Amino acid sequence: MAFLNSLDISGSALTASRLRMDVISENIANASTTKTENGGPYRRKIVVYEPAEQNSFRHILDRKMSENESEQTPKGVKVSKIAEDPSEFTPVYDPTNPDANEQGYVMMPNVDPIKETLDMMSVTRAYDANLTAFNAVKGMAVKALELGR
């Protein structure tokens, strides 16, 4: 049923958005962590999305030629990986910090709280949009069931 596919798509987007919010929260929480288990400062993490089903051109062409409607529905989105941001750390002069080098500089994480806040706002908007779509489809299903009474 087509409306169930819509629920699956919205559900996958809600799951992916929630994971992205968790990663952004982790980035903000570690914005001043100068020493991790690996020894260096905390490195910002980024969530990478991809379509839940990636098909080659040949696969799409075969599906279109077979006219099988059940296989032509999109599958939503999934998180392919959580990558580390390769940007440089910020040196801050603080000779009293135990993690300071010989010149008195401490390497701070590459987390920009403003950027993280903007990312969080973007994810919140995406989450709200998918939740609205989910509730609209659910409302349509309930109305369709009421017609059958």
Write the layout of secondary structure elements.
Elements: H1 2-29, E1 45-51, H2 57-66, E2 77-84, E3 90-93, E4 105-108, H3 113-147
Antiparallel strand pairs: 1-2, 3-4
Helix pairs in contact: 1-3
Overview of this structure, please?
The protein is an alpha+beta fold. The chain is built from three helices and four strands. A two-stranded antiparallel ribbon has the order 1-2. Helix 1 (2-29) packs antiparallel against helix 3.
In brief:
Helix content is 49%, strand content 15%. It is of the alpha+beta class. Helix 1 runs antiparallel to helix 3 (113-147).
Strand order of the largest sheet: 1-2
Distance between the termini: 20 Å
The average pLDDT is 89
Number of beta-strand segments: 4
Order of helices and strands: HEHEEEH
Number of distinct helices: 3
The assembly state of the depicted protein chains is single chain
Amount of beta strand: 15-25%
Rounded to an integer in angstroms, the radius of gyration calculated over CA atoms is 22 Å
Overall form: elongated
Which range best describes the helical content: under 10%, 10-25%, 25-40%, 40-55%, 55-70% or over 70%? 40-55%
The low-pLDDT segments are: none
